[in-house]
Amino acid sequence: MPKLASTTPAGVERLARFVRDEVIAPSGERVRLDWHGHRDRGLAVANCLAAIAAGADRVHGTALGAGERAGNAEMELLLANFHLMGIPHGDLTRLAEYCRLVSQALGLTIPTNQPVVGSDAFRTASGIHAAAILRAEERGDTELAELTYSSLPASVFGLAQQFALSPMSGHASVRHWLREHGHDPTDEPLVEALLAAAKQADRALSDGEAERVVRAAAVSR
Question: Which of 147, 191, 153 is nearest to 172 (CA)?
Fold first, then answer.
């Protein structure tokens, strides 16, 4: 028989329902049901959501999943899912800041692709994505802009969508970058120079690299 420590969401749901219906209910007592799980199989968040679906009153999590062995359920991911599920969760605008403080205090590295709090969580390098997002922003439709290519709105977490300059970028991304960094987005030679540099790169350009391209383009005139 599989050990409980390595159970799946379906197993968690059955266990939680069993405890609720066969142990708590017959007792006639008001007993709160908690679920605490680890990330040994990478199922901690899914198992917490299964426990909630089965009637658990509270689930446990830690910032960045910090904990014994592979860690616990990631609190920031639980809260993100609570937001989408309509479960009350409080103000999340400083959640990313909190996770950064935890990473510094515990010596943990936040992967760039970590959902919600990773540096790339709300960053796109695709020109098609950027053009659609920026078009929605120009129309004043903030909600559409945030959810065009993401299931989570960055503003809920006090963050903003970012646009990287990469081989996949287009004119919209370049003009946006220039405008955000105090340059003239209507300067076509500058736009073309920066776009050419982005297309020739083998990765996304850093802001410093992009600034050097802008300075070089200005000097060459």
Answer: 191
CA 40 to chain centre: 21
pLDDT in tens, 32-86: 999 999 999 999 999 999 999 999 999 999 999 999 999 999 999 999 999 999 9
Question: Measured between alpha carbons, how far is 122 from 32 in angstroms, rounded to an integer?
Answer: 37
Distance CA 1, CA 21 (A): 22
Collapsing DSSP to helix, strand or coil, 73 comes out as coil
Q: Give the pLDDT of residue 115.
A: 95
Cα 27–Cα 34–Cα 17 angle in degrees, nearest 5: 60
| Mean pLDDT of the chain, nearest integer | 90
Angstrom distances, CA of residue 153 to CA of 24, 89, 95: 38, 15, 13
Which of the 8 DSSP states describes residue 112?
A: T
